[in-house]
Amino acid sequence: MTQRASIGEGRPAQTTPLCTALNLASAGVPVLPLWRGKVPVGNCPGCIRNACGGRQNMKTAGPCTCPAPCHAWAAATTDPDVLTSPVWARAWREAAGVGYHPGGARLTVVDLDTPDAVAWAQRNLPATRTVPTTRGQHWIYRGVMRSCNGVRPGVDIKSSMAYARYLGSGTGRIAALPDAVRALTARTPTIRPTPPAGTVPGGDGACPHRTPAYLERGITMAEQQITAARSAIHHTVYRTFLAVLSAHGRCGCLTDAHIARLFAAAQIKGETPRHCTDAWTNARTRLGL
Q: pTM score, two decimals?
């Protein structure tokens, strides 16, 4: 077993998120602070509303270079000087937990969100280290792969360009990443943050609102509302999507670009593409669209 695969094995329990983070970092596991609800800390002022390029930029240029712990998985680090720096101090004081970047630790987490998903894994996947979660289990394997949500009902894959919440060292030895897990994403298309075409009912092209600027202000305000949320992120995203659709969902003026902006704001706050799609669909259903 390599040091990077230890995930805290054999280390004493700590009383603060920062102590836990430093112990994980010393084992080669990149970590970051999480607020209540497993939400990464918000963007720093220089990166608010993706001013630095945000998630899309990170996919090609690597982690953001801003000093504050923003941008979710890309903020994860093993550098103790960064973790204990003054710009991270407030984040750790308010942190409700510790997140880590599995891919950066050469690990893959199979996130099993329901008892049925756990039972499926017990029947179909090799035994490995397991960590209890509030709704199921994390199964941790040694190896890196593409992250993907919803590969099966109640099953998400968290590895490269993703973060998972640290919930303890768990039990069992970490096994090598099996082909059975890799095959799950091979059969599953990547979920994009932009909904498929046609999810917004089209109108006759004539928007009944006063000016095009009215729509732009509405989208900007919706982004700001999501960005400013400090708790109840799922509820805030849903209510914001509902408000946007209530105002603009029937006239055909919403475009994929508008929706992508809302999805991007939600994902910066920690929402997954699947949760964004579910919230959008539920809002449309509520309004009868």
A: 0.61
